[in-house]
Here is the input.
Amino acid sequence: MRISYNWLRRYIDLDASIEEVAQKLTSLGLEVESIEHLGRIFDGFYVGEVLDVQKHPNADRLRLCSVRVSVSDYPLRIVCGAPNVAAGQKVIVGTVGATVPKNQHDPNGNPFVLTKATIRGVESFGMICSEKELGIGEDSSGIKVLAADAKVGTPLAEYLGVNDTALEIGITPNRPDCLSHIGIARDLAAAYNTKYIKPIYNRFENKNINISTLATVNVKNTTDCPRYTACIIQNVEVKESPEWLKQLLNAAGLRPINNVVDATNFVMLEYGQPLHAFDYEHLAQHAIVVKSAERGEKFTSLDGKVHELSGNELMICDGERSVAIGGVMGGANSEISISTNTVLLEAAYFSPVSVRKTAKRLGISTDASFRFERGIDPNITVEASERAANLIAELSGGVVVSGLIDIYPQKIVPKIISLRVARVNAMLGTTLSAKQIKDFLESIEIGITAGKDSNLFECSVPTFRPDIEQEIDLIEEVARLFGYDNIENKTSSEVMFSAPDQHERQITAIRTWCESNGLNEVLTNSLIDSPTAKLFGNEIVAVKNPLSVELESLRPSLLSTMLQTVAHNYNHGMSRLQLFEIGTVFSAATEKNRSGYVEGYVEKNNIGICLSGEINMQSWHEKQRVVDIFDLKGLVMSLLRGIGLDNSVLIYYNASTSLTEMTIGVEINNTYAGFIGKVKPELLKKVKIDHDVFFAELDLDVLTKFHAVKTYKGFSKFPTVVRDISFIVKKSVTVADIEILIKKSGGERITAVTLFDLFEGQALGEGMKSVAFSLKINSHEKTMTDAEIDVMITTIVQSVTKTFDATLRSV
Amino acid sequence: MLDQKISELQSEIERILPAIADNDALEKFRIEFLSRSGKLASLYEELKAVPGDQKPVYGQKINTFKKSVETQFESLKASLQSSSASQKIDIDITLPGRERPKGTRHPITQTLEHMKSIFVSMGFGIVYGPEIEDDYHNFEALNFAPNHPARDMQDTFFVKDDIVLRTHTTPVQVRVMKNRPLPLRVIMPGRVYRNEAVSARSNYFFHQVDGLYVDKHVTFADLKGTLVTFAKNFYGSDIQYRFRPSYFPFTEPSLEMDITCFLCKGKGCRICKHTGWLEVLGAGMVHPNVLRNCGHDPEKVSGYAFGMGVDRISLLRYGIDDIRIFFENDLRFLNQF
Here is the structure.
């Protein structure tokens, strides 16, 4: 909320600077978000008097003026080109150093700083200003001439009445009592241990007429409208508000409209009670009926918008039709106009829930609805209504009809809440005395009566504090008024040992491995468009109110946003992409034995790894090469080995996904962990990527679950023998199958089988390839003889040639 | 006679040897003096002419002389070899080394890991919860009344009428309070969602860390001490801070913590909106209604809770002025971290 400091000081005498007051407000929980000195733009401008005007010796159009801007100092010589300058005028003088808000000679009207200038050979010490230059009017034909009684030397801001300061205060939803100047004054008074005063005003009452002869009020829905008051002001003249009122409203950020509307807005910002003024003559049968809307009813609010009503809205009606949406906005059919003569003023207490529902449904938020939603004081209504009625009368020359209609069938009374002194200290970690606590609470008008002992208070909470509902809320008030900064920062604590967290440790290990191996971690959107999401399967989770169709479905895989990242980087000139992301993926399904999630939805924590473009950096020692599936396959296998899963990984080649080709499946301890593959070209086409992209996605829960402590195994003391063998086989025979067979037929003494050469060629024959393996052979029991090894190799060769119809090339 | 020969030879060697600068000259010297037919060998020939009784004396003399020349020769040879070795290397060692590519952790991860490590050192465990959350955990159990304006503080994405994308990590507090035994001392990091238009300052998803401590006798003073300790660890021991009363439906009393703007050191700048302060977290004592909703008796136990935004703090830490750059994942951005 924006408040005017001048306005605030109508209710509280503050012996502190604005900055100190702002700090105090912030420490009370009324955070001052900004301080705007409204008059500061006029610093250096004063009311001056033109003593004498002479011709400029070197220019026909210019004059030399002698201008007094201070009673004590010498007059200033100012060169002025305005046609209307004359001796004896009171004018606005900008002195050297002042910033002129608008430069008339600049096409954009930018501000400029006044300096001592020599104009056609004569020194000038300031400037006599026009309205336009100061931004206080449109006339730029000559200098602004002020009233003769203007006092020389008065700072311009003060003369204009704009030496005010606006404070922007962030009011939390629990503090509706501070949505007014009096409310803020009340909290400040408590903090400064002083008093605030309510406005004192003149009454303009016509005792000869009673309201009961002029109007009736019938509240049919007292649930949504627990209190409704009306009063009437006659013989009003609707016109512009006086300067003081316009200035205060402007400072508080409200646009002045006319004296009647301004008076209601003023009292709203003064007391926090929203008010509505109806044109009495436009109320059929001079009646007010408060009831729920008709279903399907159409209503035009005073901003000209037509609303179709659901029947749940609370409406203010006259004898025939609706005239306002209760607590939200008035209607066009009864608004105050220049011809209004009699005003019916509404001050009511509407139920917060009802106003909130209506405002939300109709998409309207007004200063009134904002306050009603948060809860105004139901017992301020009459006080505020009388204040507003008399202000309207004062400003418009009208009179207030005696009497006030007040429909308030069930009075809302202060809550009584018990407070234990010991509880206050137990919650806050303080040692406050009963007396201190009592003083704090009484300072914000909480009534205290002693309970059965001196350490128990019965607290009567004023109705302007709907947020205080139980003991803890009173404790907060004590803490707030004592000052959060005065409560100890307790830095010792009972030590607690948290359970070792393998999952957390493994995730960190995975990240570290990826980072150390040159991968860049990315974080991408969780929401993607639904058609893309559906490519991954049908169990998609979509949001009902997306920001856009591109952000409608929760990602079922990390792939699609990874591709967006890849596309972005290719589009910006990067060509070596090695990325990973750790993030959540979603599906609409039910998974058994999965607690801690909302039923019907499965969330998984995955890692996505993506390679595209060149695998290596450009360098003098190595040719650049584009990535292929074996780079990613190797990377994933290294990662799994790197995090200690080497003995439990199984990869298989009959896997498939709807998004990748050349897909390799990964299992860890017989549990599906994810896949490695080449992203299908049609998917790449969609995001306009014309490079191959390789992608792996693995389930982190599986990766982190099977980490086991390693057990040492002894290694052989006898030498290892290396033998190479190569075969010519059909291309369709896979290396993996040959490897498996070599290990099987060689037995456990084969400690490693490494493919070290692979080629195809005319010489080998159509559809054939040559594969060469290096075998490491070793025994734990003895040094193996050549003869023993020869037997083993022969067995292997026979087995491979027979099984795969292979030809031995060399041993 | 022989004495003279030795001394002549000695002075000759002393003249030649120091001038030798390369292997060729050294080899020439060796042949001239030390070879089998060299000048030193010829001294032994002269020995034949020496009278018999003096033979051992002169033999000894020649031996000593020869040994000393040989020593000088070897040492010169060694020094010539080592200097010639360095001269012979013909490699430009200014060529770039074969570097390993640099990987990076996302800056938001780095911020989060830093936070986690501090809290873990203060005895907090780490717990995660679902991003698809029900109204009960996200709002109701946290004391958000069905039609309370506080619900407006967090514009929500709905999956169904009562299923939302969590708007904060606080629902995880409800889950742990219901499912784990007390005392509880945990942090709960994760991604959260708000239905807000994307701009330089706000995004529709971001990351939070919530914290919770529930035990007997937990006080507001404990909360303040924990937060100050964290802030000094995380932001630096020289920071100034302040606590302001604030409002969250699930804590009472509630606070927000500001620290001096680390860009302007409190003088006021664009980042801190000219206030000199930056809001870094919200916190408070767990509301008795929330404790009750989670099956705990607020008369017997109390607790504090806090929450902070990882993305916003990362913006401030790294001097980034547009939050969207975090999720563009441009390598020119990522490689700076």
Chain A touches chain B through 94 residues (CB under 8 Å). Chain A has six domains: 2-40+163-192, 44-154, 205-407, 415-483, 502-705, 721-810. The mean pLDDT of chain A is 92.
